[in-house]
Structure formats: structure tokens, C-alpha cells
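ugh ok fine here u go
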Amino acid sequence: MISLDGIEKFRVSIENHVATVTMAAPPVNAQDRRFREEMIRLFDMLGLDDTVRAIILTGQGHIFCAGADLRERPAILSEPGGYARHNRLVRAAFDVITECPKPVIAAVNGPAIGGGAALALLSDILIVAEEAYLAFPEVDHGLAGGARHVMRCFSPSNARLMIYTSQEMTGRDLYRMNVASACVPKDALLTAALQVAHDIAAKAPLAIEAAKASFGFTEEMPLRDGYRYEQGQTASLARTEDTREALAAFAEKRKPVFRGRRPA
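structure:
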């Protein structure tokens, strides 16, 4: 069981192999230094916890995450080398989502702004409430950021529209644009996210981890190289207890019982 000692800006519950991580930094779940440090520690722990097979990330209250806490900006600018250290921490807090071996489902319950929108877009699967929206208002504040994250998920025209105009993309917009997998009323959001998470948790854990690694490593590879990497993953999985169990269960017409044990 992971230790939550010192974790103040998040709430965590784990049940049936699904961890629900709730950003709980009132009033708007803004990202400051402590938020990012806790997030890195938390997802690193969840990624190594064998009892966890899928993670839901959501926000407390009416807001998913309002992005960077701009009140920190003057102090960052006044420290020698402060911006470089700040940027390094920001990248690490985003990387921990993509590098976590467990799939992360963003249950976007309300506005996701700037860095909050980036957190949602970096997750493996997006499920959004009808009342939610994503926005990158950086240009309104004389800042830049978000373009690379938006380019992964939006068409070229809509990506530029979002960044150049700071337009709020609603839950329905995100579903229509194929950015989100589902758009549901807010009171049905966690139920929808949990259903997906439980579906994932029922699969062979090591195969799910291999699939997530494949998405990460092959995203910018040529097709031939990416497929060769995936074939290597399949060859490695063939030596695991879970793969043998899956094949036996298929032959015996029963549900498999996965343990997530790695080969010795």
C-alpha cells in the first residue's frame, strides 16, 4: 500500500485495482511547486504499486485544474536560475503522466485551463463532462505554451484556433473533434470513467503496461520500426505467467485470473 504521508493536494482511493486521484487544492486546483512535487511522488508510487492497474485523474469541486499558479511567477523570476528550475519541475510533473506504466484516464469534471488542459491531454483516455471545457489562455497573459500538447490531439486548424484565440473547447466540442472518448453529464462522469478503468483492470496487467509503453515509444517512429518494437513486446510477454493463463483460460472457456508477475 502506498504511503500518503505528506500528500496534501491530492486525495487517493484504491478499489478493485483502480486508483482514483482527485486534485484537491482549493479553490481552483492550481499547480504550484508543492502540487507538482506531490504529483510526481504520487504517480511514481502508483506506477509501481502492483495492486493498481488503472488510474483516474479528476478534480475536486467544479474545476478540473486551473493550470499554473501565477502568484508564484514573481518569486520564480527573482531567483537566479529560477525559471530553469521551474520549467524542469513543470516538465517532470507532465512527464510523470505519460511515463506512468499504468493507463491514466482523465475524468474532466470542469474547466481545465493551461497546464490543467495539458494534464488532461497527456492522459491516455479523456472522458469529459458536458459542463467541462479545455482552454489555453497563455496568449492573453503574454505567455506561450500548450501548442505541442494540442497538436497531438487536435487537427492542425483546431489546434491553432485554440492556441491563437484562447477559445474554450467545451465537452461537446471535444467529443465532436474526437479529442475525448466520451462526453457525459457531470453526475455520470465518474461512473463512466470507472467503467473504462475496470475494463482495463480486468486485462492482463503486464500486457496493458506493454501496450502503454508501445504508444509512448512508437508515437514518432516509422511504421516498420514501431511494429518491430511491438513484436519484441509480444515476444517478452509470451514468457509471462499471465499470457500462459490467458491462453489456458481461452481454451477452457473461463475467465482468466491475472497476477501481474514478471518472468524470473
